Amino acid sequence: MGEELGVPARYPEGRNLVEDLGLWWVLHTKPRCERHIAQYLLNRDISYYLPLYRRKIRYGNLGRTRTREVPLFNGYICFALDKQDHKLLYDSKKFVRIIKVDDQLQFVKELQAIARAVETQDDLLVRGGFTLGRRILIVSGPMAGHEGVIVRKQGKRHLALSVKMFNQTVLVRLDQETMLEPL
Questions:
Q1: What is the pTM of this model?
Q2: The domain at 1-101 falls in which architecture?
């Protein structure tokens, strides 16, 4: 395994995702190159968001675990840049293609929910595809104000947050005190 690059999940740090509304694009990266691309964008002062979360990894015969910070969506990094400035990216050989984000407002809304989930949870689960079901609004708790679908897994409630651009869903565990409202 290569060395870990210490890049922030969001650059500029502390900047709200809405501030780059209208400029968002997605880079489909080569395998395990998300952090390299983030470092590349950071060095060129290009705004980006790479959701990172803590993942427990088991190794060895004794069931030892280690926690690593890994990209939430393998193979993707979001960046904000005018289309005419995309030429700044082409000397990097670590990405496959640039994907246009058509619905900027929906994309930012989905990313904000993911950012909140990453801030509040350590044990996120990522699944391919979308989770179908009745949409709800979280009324209380750390995810208050965000929408999603409720899923039961091993007797526990989870909020399913789907990101259409990545065709993936993130499951966030909800405690029993969290209040929900149907939409």
A1: 0.90
A2: 2-Layer Sandwich (3.30)
CA distance 33 to 22: 25
What single-letter amino acid sits at 25? Answer: W
State residue 148's pLDDT score.
95
User: Domain limits of the chain?
Assistant: 1-101, 123-183
The set of residues, in sequence order, having a beta carbon less than 8 Å from that of 135 and lying 6+ positions away, is 147, 148, 149, 182, 183
Report how far residue 104's alpha carbon sits from residue 23's, in angstroms, rounded to the nearest whole number: 8
Q: Give the model confidence (pLDDT) of 87-140 as tens digits.
A: 999 999 999 999 999 999 999 999 999 999 999 987 799 999 999 888 999 999
Which amino acid belongs to residue 63?
Answer: G
| Alpha-carbon span 169 to 127, nearest angstrom | 5
